[in-house]
Amino acid sequence: MSVLEVSNLVKRFGDVVAVNDLSFAVAPGEIFGFLGGNGAGKTTTLRMVLDIIRPTSGNISVLGAAPDRRQSNAIGFLPEERGLYSAMSAIDTIVYFGRLKGMDTSTAKARGMELLERFDLAERAKSDIGDMSKGMAQKVQLATSLVNQPELLMLDEPFSGLDPVNQGLLENEILRASERGAAVVFSTHVMQHAERLCDRLLLLRKGRKRFEGTLEQARAQLPAHIAVVSNADISALPGVHSAEAVGKGEDGWQEWHVELDPGVQPESVLEHCSTSGIALRQWNEHRASLHDIFVELVGGEGVEE
Amino acid sequence: MMSNILLVARREFRQILALKSFWLTLLILPVALALGPILTSTLGSDEPTRVIVVDRSSADVAAKLENRFTLEDDRNTLRQLSRYVQRHDLQEADPQAAWSQHDRWYTEADVANFRAENGVEGAIAAIDAVRKEDTPEFEPDNPSFEFLPVPSALEGVEGEAFGEAARTLFDSDADDAPEMIVLVDKNYPEVPRIALYAANQPRSSFVQTMQEVLTQDLRDYEAAAQGLTPDQATNIQNAAPQIAVSTPPPGDGAREALLVRSIVPLALSYILMMSLMLSGSWMLQGSVEERSNKLLESLLACIRPEELMYGKLIGSLAVGLLMILVWAGCAAIAAYATQGVIADMIRPALEPVSSPGIILAILYFFIAGYIGISAIFVAIGAMVDSMSEAQGYLMPVLLAILLPITFLLQAILAGQGGFVVDLLTWIPLWTPFAVLARLGMGIETWVLVGSGVLLAIAIAVEMIFIGRLFRASLLATGQKPTLKRVLDRFRARPQ
Fold first, then answer.
1. In what order do the strands lie in the sheet with A240-250?
2. Banded pLDDT at A107 (limits 50, 70, 90)
3. pLDDT tens track for B80-96
4. Where are the domains of chain B?
5. CB under 8 Å to B351, separation ≥6 — which residues?
6. Which end of chain A, N or C, is less packed with Cβ atoms under 10 Å?
7. Across the interface, do B7 and A96 touch by the CB < 8 Å criterion?
């Protein structure tokens, strides 16, 4: 059973359609990347899942039920815009959010201390948030979203504003939650993290889904490009969309820049060359990165590699 | 839901309690009230003013002056004694004594009788025989003036030399240095000129009384010169109507009674106003911090906007109640520390608010007032992004709430009811203040119940609209709350 299931979700703000007919599902233990440029509808979707705002139409199922604050004990959420009570201590803050999620004080405190230990902040447990650095405060906020060991962990642009060390710490926590069996949904416009972490991806543009699937499936969306040096004209080979000769060639050998038809695997063309007796001196595949896929499907605005 | 509301309330409460400004404000009122009497007793001296009368005439002016001031002091003591006896119902100590007669202005004959019966010591001895243990002892005031013997430095000196000698005495560091010196020349009363030397501005009571004594003396002298005997002259001088005086018993009677009965209700109304303004502004600070620190989304992922709003209201109410408890505790300690003197004073003041029904009404209107007005602060806090922006909306709201209350309190202090007070009683924004303040004057039951029901309905409606505004405003950062936008949010359904 999916932890989170969204079907035909629509959200309108007046004349603006923020989310348009969006459907997806996230399974337990899965890391699901929610990718899109600014204003794509990522935060709006997450807010609807959290029941902070209501959809115009469509359905959301969280742990088999409609979104409700009563499920907050099973959900962890790290918002894009972060902040905490400056006059509250780190451990009190974690316990406060734990209690708001239905935990008892002693469990929340024990889990909070465990997280602070892991984040190397145990000695600052009683320090006020206002006396901490921004990085420390962000770790405390991450702890508030993890304290209840959520079954659904949602992180909205979690890597923004983090230094490389804390980015690594966050990646570890995402993997740890996934290993524990939690469904992790995170929105980002930094492709590097999505490429490294996500089991599946959803690409969103102006509220509409442009792609959903694994990274490999995403790559298959774009034609493969191969740099080939051959002694034969390969433009007519099956699966080759186009082949452009580079330079004049030498001693019968010619360099080609080849673009395959979408969905054609480079391995099948290579196999055809072998069986057809076409000699090759060079065969360099250029695999599309997630950034390339994103730019192709969504547009490059507001995206970082 | 309730546990989340209480969690938010507890956090709000603790956050406000962590503010230094809270503790300063909490302590300012009791400290000011405690310092008032201390400063009064420290700055205002009850030591008698030391006077020397240098009498070089043959008219015995010094003795006449001293007698008159002693008479006035004794008359004052007799009057105080009479109020004390009346307050504590101690007439049985001696029903025939002057101090058991409260209905007249004490004459010289009364004072003479009082002195003949051993003065204040005699009265206290009689009273002590019937005084109950919890009745405080009578403590007479010190005499107003103390007459010192003429020092040798003033003997035989005249004119400017006398002035010099007087100033030297005034400047002396001695504890018994005189503060006023009266010089009666040897030609008095033929030359009716008296010189008064004073270290500071002379007390007007001294100058007036001295003038009365000397005027009478001069008239006696003139009457004798016209051929009247001293007795005839005295009879003419003493011819005066008998003045019957009827005053309400202490803490009773028309205006005084109204004031005494209104003290606690007015104080309640005033304290409601003060604590509301204070805790409201602290709560506003907290709301602005939540918005400016961008932690609302984290909160709203765990709790409903309504839970957040009600939590804030309850937290603010708890702060207000704590302030009142502390102030009431300070008053109780003061009453205990003063050995029942204050308690004795406030007993009649507590009378109009001591029945169970009225206590329930006070609690209801106090809590309803707190919730009703705090909700306005919550709404402001939900709409603004900074404290400076909040101040812009706060000022007009405060003026709208406070100005009519100021008029209301003044009207009740002046003992006036009238249309405005009635009107304010029925407008829910001011109902709690008006009802609390009117409890001392007396308020009809139907008005109490009717305005209470109307207030409850108004708060229910207010909660619906402010709840919508709160929910719609929470995540709308960076949007100026124009009137149109506010009205739109009042109408907004959950989206």
1. A240-250, A253-260, A225-230, A280-286
2. very high
3. 888 888 878 888 888 88
4. 2-37+253-491, 47-238
5. B261
6. N
7. yes
A75-78 and A200-205 beta bridge pairing: unpaired
| Radius of gyration of the CA atoms of chain B, in A | 33
Amino acid at B58: S
Q: Calculate how close chain B gets to A213, using CA atoms only, in Å.
A: 28
Note whether A79 contacts B297, CB cutoff 8 Å: yes
Q: Residue B234: how many CB atoms within 10 A of its CB?
A: 14
DSSP single-letter state for residue A89: B
3-state class (DSSP) for residue B228: coil
Of the candidates B467, B406, B405, B412, the one whose C-alpha atom is nearest the C-alpha of residue B441 is: B412
Q: Phi and psi at residue B337, in whole multiples of 5°?
A: -65, -30
Q: What is the residue-wise DSSP string for A64-95? A: TB---GGGGGGEEEE-SS----TTSBHHHHHH
Q: Which residues in chain B have their CB less than 8 angstroms from residue A87's CB?
A: 15, 18
Q: Answer yes or no: are the C-beta atoms of A273 and A234 closer than 8 Å.
A: yes
Burial of B395 (0-12, 13-18, 19+ CB in 10 A): exposed
What average pLDDT does the segment A89-115 reach?
A: 95
Which residues in chain B are contacts of A144 at CB distance < 8 A? 298
Would an 8 Å CB–CB cutoff place A160 in contact with chain B? no
Distance CA B374, CA B397 (A): 12
Query: How many C-beta atoms surround the C-beta of residue B450 within 10 A?
Result: 13
Query: Considering only CB atoms, which chain A residues are within 8 Å of B311?
Result: none
Complex-level ipTM: 0.82
Query: Are B368 and B455 in contact, with CB atoms under 8 Å apart?
Result: yes
Nearest residue on chain B to A138, alpha-carbon basis: B295
Task: State which H helix or E strand residue B468 sits in.
Answer: helix B445-474
What is the tens place of the pLDDT at every residue in B178-218? 988 988 888 888 888 888 888 888 888 888 888 888 888 88
Which of these, B110, B185, B86, B134, lies nearest to B343 by C-alpha position?
B134
**A14: nearest CA in chain B?**
B495
Q: Does A99 touch chain B (CB under 8 A)?
A: yes
Q: Do B301 and A54 touch (CB under 8 A)?
A: no
In B88-158, alpha helices (H): 108-116, 119-128
A144 and B298 within 8 Å at the Cβ level: the answer is yes
Residue A189 tokens, joined: 């416009």
Beta bridge partners of A250: A253
Q: What confidence category does residue A248 fall into, taking pLDDT thresholds of 50, 70 and 90?
A: confident
Residues of A in Cβ contact (< 8 Å) with B2: none
Q: State whether residue A210 sits within 8 Å of chain B by CB.
A: no
Nearest CB to B304; choose among A69, A75, A79: A69
Q: What single-letter amino acid sits at A55? A: P
Give the residue from A272, A275, A256, A276 showing the smallest Cα distance to A264.
Answer: A272
Q: Return the CATH class of domain A4-219.
A: alpha beta
Provide the shortest C-alpha distance from residue B16 to chain A (in Å): 10
Identify the pLDDT of residue B260: 62
The pTM (predicted TM-score) of the whole model is: 0.70
Q: How far apart are the C-alpha atoms of A76 and A78, rounded to whole Å?
A: 7
Q: How far is CA A235 from CA A205, A230, A259, B296, in A?
A: 35, 11, 9, 60
Cβ distance A79 to B289 less than 8 Å, yes or no, reads no
Assess A17–B contact: CB distance below 8 Å, yes or no: no
Domain A225-287 CATH (choose: 1.10.238, 1.25.40, 3.30.70, 3.30.870): 3.30.70
How many degrees, rounded to 5, is the angle at CA B189 between CA B187 and CA B191?
55
Closest CA to A147 of A174, A172, A115, A193: A115
> Which residues in A lie closer than 8 A to residue B297 (C-beta atoms)?
47, 52, 77, 79, 81
The answer to whether A78 touches A145, Cβ cutoff 8 Å, is: yes
